[in-house]
Amino acid sequence: MANLAMLLDMTRCAGCYGCVVSCKMENGSRPGINYNGVQPIEWGEYPNANQRFRLTLCNHCEDPECVSVCPAGATTKSDNGAVLVDHEKCIGCGMCVSACPYGQRHLVKKDETNFPGEIAPYEEESVKRLNVVEKCTYCNQRVSQGLMPACVQNCPGKCRIFGDVADPESEISKYITTHNAIKVEGTSTYYVIPENMDEALLPAAYIASANAPVAPPEEDKSSSSGIITGVAVATVAAVAVGVGVGVARSRSGKGGDDTNG
């Protein structure tokens, strides 16, 4: 049986945000809701300062709390390991949003589009979803057809490796071995990090207490996230420019803007 996983090689990421834009165009997520995150992180002090981009997404946990707390049975873990949401069953209670220790679930409460007053072609299906939870599904609609997730397909740096870790001959399995990848415990996410980077900078360090009270969120979390606006989505060509900018930043050690998933 397949066991899908995602590997993120931080040594190759140029911070171009191509994964964020391609994900939004594939899934039509609302303004301020991004399933992928690109977060500049820094460590060390001048003249030995370092900067890289930490990539985040739903970690498709091995034993996901979002599944166990859902009163409607809308969130399930599929046979291939992907955690999915049935929007027909979702009642919008937000219990899973509070239960997710990585902040990778999004309750859609605002009926907005990326272009005010207009519905872009890639939003035709997503605009039908309101008061339900959305998240990364590994682009289940693509994977089920034998395609790669949009973020993997469109990463110019090839820093995302996706596949079946149950198959020792798969690309991801070999990459994990040859690049000494670090697995975020209890999840389906692996990272390759620079040699001098502290593992504490990985998402595992931000896991909320398992004993924290679970309750529906009071506010829209989009205000704390970087917003990919309609203009940004329309100017997809800017992603190519971002590659060059990201590479320059990586070499110079300077920071940049933060876009969370």
TrEMBL record:
TM ranges: 227-248
InterPro entries listed in its UniProt record: 4Fe4S_Fe-S-bd (IPR017896), 4Fe4S_Fe_S_CS (IPR017900), ET_IronSulfur_Cluster-Binding (IPR050954)
Domain of life the protein comes from: Bacteria
Gene3D superfamilies (alphabetical): 3.30.70.20
Keyword 4Fe-4S: yes
Ranges where the 4Fe-4S ferredoxin-type domain occurs: 49-80, 81-110
Keywords of the record: 4Fe-4S, Iron, Iron-sulfur, Membrane, Metal-binding, Transmembrane, Transmembrane helix
Single GO MF annotation: 4 iron, 4 sulfur cluster binding
Database matches in PANTHER family: PROTEIN NRFC (PTHR43177), PROTEIN NRFC HOMOLOG (PTHR43177:SF3)
Protein name (record): 4Fe-4S dicluster domain-containing protein
Origin species: Desulfitobacterium dehalogenans
Lineage of producing organism: Bacteria, Bacillati, Bacillota, Clostridia, Eubacteriales
